Amino acid sequence: MITQVQIVEWLQVFSSVIEHHKQELTELDAAIGDADHGINMDRGFKRVSSILPSIEGKDIGSILKTVSMTLISSVGGASGPLYGTWFLRGSDITMGKNQLTTRDILAFLKAGLDGVVERGKAQLGDKTMVDVIHPAVLAFEKAVTEDKDTISALRMAVDAAEQGLRHTIPMIAKKGRASYLGERSMGHQDPGGTSAYLMLRSLLEVVEGARKWK
């Protein structure tokens, strides 16, 4: 189970994590993209963090919808539309809810993934955030079928996301600016996949109540 309070805390933690990893994300993007992923994500989530006090009393769906609109309006490049779509689809699933069961979380993750795929037109193996989120969703779904609790399911999802992220390194990019490099995009970790991993890992951190990881 995840509560509305934990959702707000997740967004706050993720904002801090993005700030902490801003330079890393920018350097990853400099190798195969526009060198602005960390800058754009930090700008967007600083804005999200600033509006959280005004929406923290609302239901989860309303919070996520506001986050979506904020990111779309404040994050440049592909990140704004993709993350905005992720949270918008999640808001549709969670509207009116103040807590989420493990199955609700699965529905949220699936809806977010579907939205990102539709918006970005990316598939597995294209060297994008889909290569991180897709295995995470499959792992979470497997955990649900095995009647795992929320923390166990998230741990499985994050482990799968981390493995998916490592798998982006040898891939040839087929979407976005990185695709222009062809084989030269090999050997570099995908920046969007990295921020997606950080997002899922931040959620696990909040649900576990841990504060050691950055």
Automatic annotation (TrEMBL):
Record-linked InterPro entries: DhaK_L_YcgS, DhaL_dom, DhaL_dom_sf, Dihydroxyacetone_Kinase
GO MF annotation: an example: glycerone kinase activity
Domain DhaL per the UniProt entry, residue ranges: 5-205
A Gene Ontology biological process term: glycerol catabolic process
Example of a GO cellular component annotation carried by this entry: cytosol
Top-level taxonomic group: Bacteria
UniProt xrefs under Gene3D superfamilies: 1.25.40.340
Pfam families: Dak2
Swiss-Prot/TrEMBL keywords: Kinase, Transferase
SUPFAM superfamilies noted in UniProt: DhaL-like
Stated name of the protein: Dihydroxyacetone kinase subunit L
Organism of this sequence: Cylindrospermopsis curvispora GIHE-G1
